[in-house]
Please model this.
Amino acid sequence: MKKSVTLDIDAILDDRGTRIIVCCGSGGVGKTTTAAALGLRAAERGRCAVVLTVDPARRLAQSMGLTELDNTPRLVSEGESGGQLYAMMLDMKRTFDEIIEAHADPERARQILSNPFYQSLSSSFSGTQEYMAMEKLGQLRRSDEWDLIIVDTPPSRSALDFLDAPERLGRFLDGRFIKLLTAPAKAGGRSAFRLLNAGFGIVAGAMTKLLGAQVIKDLQTFVSALDAVFGGFRQRADLTYKLLQAPGTAFIVVAAPERDAMREASYFVERLAEERMPLAGLVVNRVHESPAATLSGVRSAAAAEDLETRGEHELTAAVLRLHTGRMQLAAREHREQDHFIGAHPTVPIAKVAAMTEDVHDLAGLRRVGELLANG
Amino acid sequence: MDSPDTDWDGVRLHVVTGKGGTGKTTVAAALALALASGGRKVLLVEVEGRQGIAQIFDLPPLPYEERRIAVAPSGGDVFALAIDPEEAMLEYMEMFYGMRRAGRALTKMGLVDFATTVAPGFRDVLVTGKTTEAVRRRGRDGRRVYDAVVLDAPPTGRITRFLNVTQEVAGLARVGPIKSHSDLVHGVVKSPETAVHFVTLLEEMPVQETLDGVADLAGAGLPAGGIFINMVRESLLPQAALDMAVKGRFDVGELALGLKAAGLADGADAGSLAEALAEEVVEHARRTELERAERESLAASTLPRYELPLLTDGVDLAGLYELAESIRTQGAA
Model:
């Protein structure tokens, strides 16, 4: 396997200048567990850390022994060195509601909150989950109550959604479509679309035909109300984006030693470089290494076959077969990692050995933290 | 055409979901191959824009177009379609309203950004709409064009919402064309022609999510299919040896003798190699024990279960055919 630079997790956690750690990667690679383990280790090394997760499966709650995770950070554990670990799970709808309530006058807020579009979309926006995570991150950072914020990014269909969603939402809010919808309201309540030019007219007709007049009306109310409230929306998104580019932020890309996950990790590393976001390194979870690596898979298989032919030491032969499989798996994982290292030789890597059991409690998280730091 | 008895006779839309990392796309592809075998025609649909099907079949990225990508065992064709929400929207507008030009204009104006960002609900309607259209589509002879459609669907956490999205949108659009379209989609998704299959591993979180997903699905009145337990490792060791290993009483001395007999090591080396290998055995035994427990948890659900082997060389075309064969012998297709 190719040589790589080792990712020094403790150096990142101990550096008081590190204020935000973002864990990103494709689904099912152990991002949430990594984020929680980093948080616990940071707290036990004296940091006052909060872990922000967006996962609807409440996995973080399980592993931290919490029965309830809501939109407020809850104290999980206090370290001997004065460090503390808090955790919170993003409640997307509540975060959204809070923004509306904070930025609109009561009447307008009521209008928005009771609009059928708002009700349906505030809880089902997939892009907005990413957006709200960024919004919450900005809030936590501004509150300055924690000296380290660890973000577990949403389980997107693609890891890149996390960076793209705020941008897409902004593009939409600035787009012509929204101007089309809000124009009638701005024109003093005259009938929809009348003041628009012919090109818009065709479109408006098409939309009414497609969606139905009632939908258009609800949508217009929703969008114009939202537009008024969300003037500051883009600005805050831009601020958060800049925050992510700042030197106090460390991105940790999480992957498993499998083709899809490593490929996604590669994309992410390249994308972060393009966006000039500070990458700390790659964490490869669930790595299988053999304690008996001196015995190659090929020799092991040959010896097993030999014993089987002679009809001797059946159990030893079975153990050798098991070992062969293990070495094949390790070899495959090495190949997947080599692809990454070949393309990104300077990215520091920490490896976490596969554990037989899932993490259930703080002791388990602590163990993951140790593996991370020694990987 | 000879259609063998399977657990899912009569099902035309196979929705495949699973937690991230469980091999959902692989199982969907293998299921499509299995369903196509024996001269049938199956469409494999991808909706998440990841081009996972192209990667598995080792093809260049798929366009928004139904094209043949594989031949099934003993004849039969697998077609694939990667649904692009924007294209689906334009097609939809043209099909129902003859408004392709207006559609282009809407795209320019950011309506597609709206549909895909701010209202993914609409995106899901388009995607399920396109899929169910393929299910219902009939040729000139009045027969269905596809014998089955396999949908590589969003992950378990989102599946019920995804399939029910037409209902949600119908709630917003109480009358009008979207409403009737939603009803049409929902008619297919809720019918016995649909089965939602879950892909899981024998690990705690995927199993828990599967059971939660099955319950959600039932709560929403959607038709559940089977549970595909993926990447199952066969245990090479006899149960007695595993039991000893779990208790930490694996006979290292015996193993060392075996290693000597095989000419792999001698003297103290044999001892230390045996110790190292015993460590592997203990780990394997513990994992086998956990897998047994997870299998039992899955048995709490009444859905049929199928087990697919771990492909040690990773998923390639040969591996897909192997999985398809396994799916067929177990009666899932």
